[in-house]
Input
Amino acid sequence: MNILTVAFECVPLAKSGGLADVVAALSIEWKKQGHNPIIILPKFYFIDADNLGFKPTNHTLVVPMGHWNEYATLLHGKLPGTDVDVYLLEHNEYYGRDGLYGMDGKDFLDNPRRFLFLSRAIFEAAKTLNFKPDIIHSHDFHTAYSQAFLKCYYRNVPFFSKTAGVFTIHNLAYQGRFAPESTMLYSGFGMQEFYQGSWHEYHGGTNYMKIGIMFADKITTVSPTYSNEIRSEYFGEGLHNALNYRAGDLIGILNGVDYSIWNPATDKTISINYDKNNLDNKQKLKSKFLKDNGIVGRDNIPLIAMVSRMTEQKGFDLLIRILEDYLWNNKFTFAIIGSGDIHYQNYFNYIKNKYPNISIVYIGYNEALAHSLYGASDFLLIPSRFEPCGLTQMYAMKYGTLPIVRATGGLADTVREFSSFDNSGNGFVFWNYNTDDFSFAINRALSVYYSDSINKARINAMNTDFSSKKSAEKYIECFHWALEKNVN
Ligand code: ADP
Ligand code: GLC
Output
């Protein structure tokens, strides 16, 4: 199958969250399975294309933007360390900047255009490269308009007559709601298409996510539970009606993990490797990690960590209400790596200052430190208010680090409560979004830590298999459905 993936993120080239991991993992797996994937993403300023072996192609793309054309060039290379073809869309005015979506906490004002340009340019790129896609797979609201372009502008172009569109929702909370004028102008649809009740209109503005939902042949979300949740008003972020309208084409496919990257036995970014037959080394890694971070005499006290964007979604308001109780009573060592909302960052800096001997706080993004934390910790906290899938719990499990999660979205699909009675389960789960239930889950985890069952729980977690192979296969099945639907 020829699969054209279009996205704003893809590891290791550009990443702000799990979207980037998933985009890469899928194409890598499809390639292994004998398909023919290509990925098109913007050539951001920070992508060191030369050093990564990208070469200019001779192609200049002429991309319709409203009533006129704009131009871009294409660089070609491989996704580093793989044989997956990647094309970087070079347009310095749009993408020659240091941020993906914004800088210094402020979104770029021309984001509506930046998103539309990529969504439109992929069609011109496909034609120029003579890559006839069976599927155009676009991810999240940034590239959602490609689904509308496929149906409205390219369905009658013979080159694309058999192409189906699949749209994947990674996070419904981010929708691309803008004033309509610029979107309607640059997308070429014009303000005449913008009226109450039209697919372009949402509460008086645009909503790129809604466009993806309405125009795609199939819509996927990143876990089965989330695909059900978002049809309710509570989780639907205002789009539950659109999602219910498309419910017959809405499928939940659990994200997968690229275990060639996320494996404690082979991971080169952690200083001591281990596997489930050698958990002593995990303990050694913990001791070394604590020592390296100036924490002494706490090798045998639980280390509880978080690796997370600091946003409301991730359940920080619950954690903030209970964390100090635990630290004051010296119940565990706390470590966090993340960045995001300033008031959360300030709070964790305060924790670091008040409890310097029992906490590790790193505000910022650091891939290597994240790997070390998955390896060295005993538990990972993910008390999310909602979680479309969540990758950190899956990474943690592979590293024998037990997740403590709220049962929502992909967390509900991947984590089972550990029971000391029959030694089943791979983590700790609470249902209601309140501090009592969250604390009780932490307390259960702490008691297992001090019991004989702890290694059994760790091994269960390490045995859980969320390989991207499975999820890539499910997408192929979904692509077949999309193609069948598209037969005239
Ligand atoms: P989301 O996409 O909502 O942020 P996921 O759990 O799907 O949540 O994915 C988060 C990804 O980002 C994981 O790969 C995680 O390791 C990584 N990550 C999050 N925060 C940081 C950070 N501060 N430094 C390094 N990696 C991080
Ligand atoms: C989003 C979601 C997260 C999911 C990720 C990758 O960022 O918040 O739950 O794992 O996308 O699909």
About this structure: Residues 17-19, 21, 307-309, 337-339, 365-367, 370, 389-392 surround adenosine-5'-diphosphate (ligand 1) (CB under 6 Å).
